Amino acid sequence: MLSQLRPALSLLALMTLITGVAYPLTVTGVAQLAFPEQANGSLVRDAKGEVRGSQLLAQPFEGAGWFQPRPSAGNFATVASGASNLAPSNPALAERIDKDAQRLASEGHGPVPMALVTTSGSGLDPHLPPEAARFQIPRIAAERGLPAATLERLVEQNTQRPLIGPAVVNVLALNTALNEMPR
Question: Coiled coil located at which positions (predicted)?
């Protein structure tokens, strides 16, 4: 029995050191050297150097003068990220979407884009389709006293066109650019 237990425990200790210590330290070291910004969370800092968020995570913005991200089932908390698990046939989901659509609807602006009333799979998607950002322009223009054409240009300047997939706008980057505009 001892002749079988000793090699098993030795192998367990060796594999624990390799997979639990050596491998994670190696991957972390390579990431820090090759991709330091991404390895540290792709943080967005203001002019004072204070962290304002991450390019990779959505965050809520308070007030009518800001572009709003997609709703979050986990209230934008990274620990509770994930979908609500409500089926499309669930009345609670339909009620929440209807309530959000009524809140966002404006006369003459057409239907509310789906991205503004539905959550992403993680609940933390930092991107919106450009159409969803443009839908918010009349509200922001009225709140900030800015011409809609100025905000259109801002959305266009912050639209990312990946090699594969649809164009997207990072809401934090868009609001950061909006904050830097003179009032």
Answer: none
